Amino acid sequence: MLELSNITVQYGVVKAVRGVSLKVEKGEIVSLLGPNGAGKSSLVSAAVGILPVAGGTIRFEGTDITKKPAETVVAMGLTLTPEGRRVFADLSVAENLHLGAATRKDRDGVAADIEKYLKMFPILGERYHQTAKTLSGGEQQMLAIARSLMSRPKLLMLDEPSLGLAPRIVDRIFELMLDLKRDGLTMLVVEQNATDALGISDRGYILASGSLVYEGDAKAMVDSEDLMEAYLGSGVH
Amino acid sequence: MNHLLRTARNSALPIIVLTAVGTLIYFFAEAYQVRIAYAFFMNLVVAIGLQVFMGNSGVVSFGHVSFMGVSAYVVAILTIPLALKKTQIPDAPFGLGFVQFDVVTAILIALAVTVAFAWVSGLLIKRVSGAAGEILTLAVLVICYVVFNAWIDLTRGPRSLYGIPIASSLPWAMLASAFVIFVAKFFRDSEDGLQLRASSENMLAARSMGVRVERLRLKAWVLSGFLVAIGGVLHATYLGTIGPNSYYFTQTFLIMAMVILGGMRSVSGVIVGTALISVGSELARTLENGPMVFGTKLPTMFGLTGFFLGAVIVLCMTLRRDGIMGDDEFEDVLRNRRASKAAKAAADTAAQAV
């Protein structure tokens, strides 16, 4: 469904991503793991078109989207939930949700989807007219995910959805992702929290210093203590 | 509810209050007070015009006063009677020395020319973010000033153009400001406005949602250029004479102080800021001349007005960066007060029940 081939992302002369290839098939959850600064965020940002790609090609559902701007990519059904709960803190929950539908023109559909997600996340309904900064960390992450879903993605890329959240909330976020998978959503999850992410994933990739160092079956990866220790720091976090 | 109706309802309060005050001044105040009121409404048009770009995109612009200048010069060049034109700009290019339009046509042409200029300059501005973009807007201001000064055949250079038919009066300025308030609020609450405000809060998040930041910036830049151009028309058609210095740093900082003091992210804030700065500068101007207060003659203090504007900007930037109104419009303040009153009433009833 999503196919990155030999992608390079560069900031000036510094290469953040060096020739990485990865694939996400329809219906899968795939983890993209690796330590801080490995280039994970750069890779998914490039995939959605908010960072320029210095080399390689990106194909989504068979179409070359390497040079396509974010609005086109998002409209095609590839959406990124950015790192660090990037909700618009000074805007209301309602406005945040509407912004998720920035690429859509079907007003009735947007209104129906908002209804749907308010049912899925009742807390967002209660806080509908409040500014997003009044939400707790977990609630903000729910909002960020709901906002991404407002664009009706076929493939959702989540950048560090567990970052800075209490373990109980992290569990809920991962459960939510399994629910979304059951509804037919394909996901690519960028995480440092390797064990939990692999726990819900079908496959995983490990990135270190901008290069791919491992790819394989998620279950096998969790079981391989050597691997977890070598690249992901003892496998706990 | 329909967006048009909701905007009409939300802009009704400031428009009614301003119109009432303006009407009282128009009928009952002295001539010099009417002139001050006119300047207030004209500056309000320019300040709100600037807010449309600055407040929604989050990019500070020092260049908007140029739009005022361009439209004022176009109006002047097209409306000055031929005889007067011959003595002022005998060598006007493009045969402009031999044409004279009626005021309405000239105004429409002036607005169109300014919009075209805004669009061309906007193509550059929209690409650049942060400080670089702001410096670019400053360059627009300087370039226009240089052109007003140096293209002597067309603009008469540093000397003023005079003889523009005086077609405007306080009611026109009031009407224009009502229109500008409505348009600014309509844009702010529109989908485009919301997306642009989101991009100013968090560019990456907005772009990852597919918000077309550059396109929206250009849209806001052109719309605000158009609104500021109305201010230029008001300027030229009221004074009857214009010169390049009216469209440079002094005016820029006056408008900037108004926008910053009130809160650039809110249209209501800019109204508040314009009112306070207008009253403040009038007071400063009076003090400048060393008036008699309670029988004591105060010393004359030249430059007090400029000092006042600088002080407002400095104090605002250090103490209250979001301005007086922050993100809130008048209707938000009213709603919040009602909500907190309702909450208090509910709490009281609950307390009594216990």
Automatic annotation (TrEMBL), chain A:
InterPro entries: AAA+_ATPase (IPR003593), ABC_transporter-like_ATP-bd (IPR003439), ABC_transporter-like_CS (IPR017871), BCAA_Transport_ATP-bd_LivF (IPR052156), P-loop_NTPase (IPR027417). Residues 2-234 form the ABC transporter domain. One of its GO terms (molecular function) is ATP hydrolysis activity. Keywords: Amino-acid transport, ATP-binding, Nucleotide-binding, Transport. The keyword ATP-binding applies. It comes from the Bacteria. Pfam families: ABC_tran. CDD domains: ABC_TM1139_LivF_branched. One of its GO terms (biological process) is L-amino acid transport. Belongs to the ABC transporter superfamily. This is ABC transporter ATP-binding protein. It comes from Zavarzinia aquatilis.
UniProtKB/TrEMBL annotation, chain B:
The keyword Hydrolase does not apply. The keyword Transmembrane applies. It is found in: Cell membrane. One of its GO terms (cellular component) is plasma membrane. InterPro entries: ABC_transp_permease, LivM-like. It comes from the Bacteria. The chain crosses the membrane at residues 12-29, 36-54, 60-84, 96-119, 131-152, 164-187, 220-241, 253-278, 298-319. This is Branched-chain amino acid ABC transporter permease. It comes from Zavarzinia aquatilis. The lineage of its organism: Bacteria, Pseudomonadati, Pseudomonadota, Alphaproteobacteria, Rhodospirillales.
